[in-house]
Write a structure and sequence with these properties.
mainly beta; UDP N-Acetylglucosamine Acyltransferase, domain 1; six-stranded parallel sheet; 4% helix; globular
Length: 184
């Protein structure tokens, strides 16, 4: 199925009221809820769930088996690896009438590795990188690399993803040698 210049696989469910940007591809068995907003030129892999009121920016890639729950915002050019998990309630109970959505914000260009868990209330900074399998329990600074369970700082990355420093303190520049040379 095609909606405008977007392609939506015949097995995907896109509820009325969901907005899908031009050039976006929604693959097999994905489900986009009413009220979700997905930007231009995005890719939602197989079996992706996008809940109501979720906002996804332009040029975002969400790989297979990811659920993006209510309260999560993914800004432009975010990458979410396969089977990454977002939570949205600090005190979840199946029978609680007091379900409270706690927002999570993933800033422009950030990357989240496969099987990472992002606990709600966190902000992942611009161009930050979360290592595969990590559990993020607190906010991540721009360009910061975090790894482990719970995720801990492991360095700083360039916009291209290359590690520019393994030091705890912020480097003077977040550009790797290759990106610096290309800018000249």
């Amino acid at each position: 199925m095609t909606a405008g210049d977007s392609s939506i696989h015949e097995t995907a469910i896109v509820e009325p009221g969901a907005r899908i940007g031009t050039g976006t591809h929604v693959w097999h068995h994905s489900h986009v809820r009413d009220g979700a907003v997905i930007g231009r030129d995005c890719t939602l892999g197989k079996n992706v769930f996008v809940d109501a009121t979720v906002v996804i920016g332009d040029r975002v890639k969400v790989q297979n088996n990811v659920s993006v729950y209510r309260g999560v915002t993914l800004e432009d050019e975010v990458f979410v690896g396969p089977s990454a998990v977002f939570t949205n309630d600090q005190l979840p109970r199946a029978s609680s009438p007091d379900w409270q959505i706690t927002p999570t914000l993933v800033r422009e260009g950030a990357s989240i590795g496969a099987n990472a868990t992002i606990v709600c209330g966190s902000e992942i900074g611009r161009w930050a990188m979360v290592g595969a399998g990590s559990v993020v329990t607190r906010s991540v600074a721009p360009h910061q690399l975090v790894v482990g369970v719970p995720a801990r700082p492991a360095g700083w990355v360039c916009r291209c993803g290359a590690v520019v420093s393994r030091e705890a303190s912020r480097p003077a520049s977040f550009e790797c040698a290759g990106c610096e040379a290309a800018a000249r």
